[in-house]
Amino acid sequence: MSIVTVKAQPFDFALDMAHAALVIIDMQRDFVEPGGFGETLGNDVTRLQAIVPTVQRVLEAWRQAGGVVVHTREGHAPDLHDCPPAKRLRGQPSLRIGDVGPMGRILIQGEAGHAIIPELTPVAGDIVIDKPGKGAFYATTLGAELAARQVSYLVFMGVTTEVCVQTSMREANDRGYDCLLVEDGTESYFPEFKQATLDMLRAQGGIVGWTAPAQALIEAIGR
Ligand code: TIU
Q: How remote is the CA of residue 189 from the centroid of ligand 1, in Å?
């Protein structure tokens, strides 16, 4: 039987591993390491690094359980044709998208900062989705990739909780997926925003989806 039960909030999450994908959002050097996009926006990026061992642990358990793995990367083509001026010109960052920083051009595909961190490097068979926006479905092939594999359950991890993770989970919810967010597998530059996001996603009877600690997920899929 491929259906397992994850102890989750607001209630147990029935997860069919035969139709499930783990979606790791934007665990890129640009968000997690100094000198990248996250830091140019004025954030302390070091607080995101604390989740890396947990994300690794869940990814390993998920691979052993035979689930589909998706990694997303936020970024833009070198000619910036897919970067709206409204995004590039927003605010007063120390460097803008496309400018040259210590890890190459900020948030540009192929640059060092755009890469997924070495601890989570994708392996053969993983799906890697390049996305120009916050949501993983907007202007990407993710929906088609999941449909081709008959996936209807999504488990989310990654950064940042209230920006790309929440946007992607809301996009997925509207598309009919049952979604779980791993509480300690996601992080924000703002702890209060992370907490508020967890609370709002699972409020109203799971209006957007479920949340659970990594250990609850690992115990459910590990047998
Ligand atoms: N700034 C911020 O919190 N996040 C982003 O810009 N992108 C993602 O969340 N990946």
A: 9
